[in-house]
Amino acid sequence: MCLRLAVIKCHARGEVTDKALRLRLRGTTAELSYSTEWADSHPRTVHLLHEEEAVWARERVLQLRLP
Prior knowledge:
The protein is of the alpha+beta class. The protein has three helices and three strands.
């Protein structure tokens, strides 16, 4: 999951900061958080993250939750 999220984060090929995203595991749910400002400046990445959330929901092994 971390590799898939890293690929999505780097997809825009812009500056990548290690503080942009925060991933926390709670049982079988992975919570990914980010600031509203970051989301506003990276709409394509946010779109891809929501697509990834849907993929993980279909797999039913681990859930990805976004803000």
